[in-house]
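so im writing up the methods section and need the Basal-body rod modification protein FlgD record in one place, dumping it here so i stop losing it
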Amino acid sequence: MDISNVDSVLNQFSIRNRQSDESENGDDLGRDVFLQLLTTQLQNQNPLEPQENSEFVAQLAQFTQVESLDELSNNFSDFTGSFLSNQALAASSLVGTSVTVPSSSTLLSAGGVVSGRVELPTSSPDVNISIFDDNGSLIDRIPLGEQASGELIFRWDGLFAELNGELLDWQSQNAEIPPGEYEIRVTALIGGESTQLDTGLSANVNSVTVGNDNELTLNLAGIGSFSIDDVIQFNQ
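--- predicted struct ---
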């Protein structure tokens, strides 16, 4: 089941629960008041013109419905709390792992590897990966050559690169790429024009934050915070 759809359902029930609580504290007819009025009505009815049985049944049915809705509301409140607790616990287990999110920059750690992916909408005769340092200077370009349409998955460790699991016949011209934040742009020649593609890059999860609206936010090394709904892939 899509998480975003589950969150939407829970939010709707949360709003209804709050509305129910407000009604009980306001002028609307609550469960206890309803029962009290029904009892008073029975005690003070005219013995010469007693209330019809059908009317009693209808009022009792109304009371049963109110009781059932109240129980359903309480059960869903418990379910919501349990669901969010389990979701937060599952998200906390991501700390120290790597995820892929929509981003054009990420952090290359010492001895680490950056993985990324792009979707090539059509075949291209010339695809390149350009890497910039935090000053915006181009430090390397990885030629991928002609590529068919579809998903391209690449890995870069500062010295070598892979594409779709195959080591490229390429090596960085720089003797050593220091750890740091780098911008990675993937461009493709499409329709005679150089087009920059949307990239998804890997980053390590430093911590997880649960907001006031119960939204889970992943704090990623070097590139900031992302909603868990933005994650493209959970990497091994």
